[in-house]
Write a structure and sequence with these properties.
It is built from 8 helices and 7 strands, in the order H-H-E-E-H-E-H-E-H-E-H-E-H-E-H. By secondary structure, the chain is of the alpha/beta class. A 7-stranded mixed sheet has the order 1-7-6-2-5-3-4, with helices on both faces. It is globular and about 55 Å long.
Length: about 240
């Protein structure tokens, strides 16, 4: 039965992705940014439903920017989960831009891309992020830099916080967690780590019993005189508490 359920979910997901590409190609060019953001959020909510995932929000999402959301990173689902809770512009590695289908959708959602191996590009991205925050936007980053196993968090890279320091913008910690809807126990089905393939992770998620995606927003805070490294260490501890709460 679980494979039949997974096949049905997969068909719905593929149809939903096709719908998203159609909206991006034909409707987005004529829409102002706020309506584009509303479409991205609604599309993300529906994507989770098609995948058998229910969204639960704890704490208070930001109503307006400027603010930088800082979250732990678990899965390929993290971005649609956070979009479903509150639209934001993600900072992502440049590889994503070239991914079939996903890259098109990510770009349409306002993703900012960074070439992590290039120091010059990292400086360019910090300036772009600073400008976005000064325009009052809501940005989101995964300071671990890659997905973790959901058991222990990886250290935070502090460089992305520099934009918030320079813009004088608040940072809001966010804890992400996936749980079995029936038992409340942590679900590792959506994990995407190590040598796993994206296809394998997606299929395991679709085969799993109903999952609840928990997005736990903490309290926004400012640097308050801390440098980016000290601030990153503090935020790491806060996000770790939020994801386990």
């Amino acid at each position: 039965m679980k494979h039949l359920r997974a096949c049905w979910r997969l068909l719905r997901l593929l149809g939903h992705i096709g719908k998203g590409l159609w909206i991006v190609a034909l409707r987005f060019p004529a829409l102002p940014p706020d309506q584009q953001h509303a479409h991205v959020q609604a599309w993300s909510v529906q994507l989770l439903a098609h995948a058998g995932i229910q969204l639960r929000i704890e704490g208070r999402p930001p109503l307006t920017g400027p603010v930088m959301l800082v979250a732990n990173h678990l899965s390929w689902l993290d971005i649609p989960v956070m979009h479903a809770a509150r639209h934001c512009r993600f900072v992502s590695k440049s590889d994503v831009q070239g991914w079939p289908l996903i890259g098109t959708l990510a770009t349409a959602a306002g993703t900012l891309y960074i070439e992590r191996s290039s120091r010059r590009d990292a400086l360019r991205m910090v300036r772009s992020m600073q400008e976005a925050l000064e325009r009052g936007e809501v940005l989101a980053v995964f300071p671990e830099g890659t997905t973790g196993d959901g058991r222990a968090m990886l250290p935070f890279h502090a460089n992305l916080l520099q934009a918030a320091v320079m813009a004088g913008a608040p940072v809001q910690p966010v804890g992400l967690r996936f749980a079995d809807q029936a038992t409340g126990a942590t679900s590792f089905a959506p994990s995407y780590i190590g040598d796993e393939t994206l296809v394998g992770s997606i299929w395991r998620t679709l085969c799993a019993p109903p999952i609840e995606a928990v997005v736990h927003y903490g309290v926004p805070e400012v640097a308050d005189g801390r440098d980016r490294r000290a601030w990153a260490q503090h935020l790491h501890a806060v996000v770790d508490r939020l994801r386990q709460a």
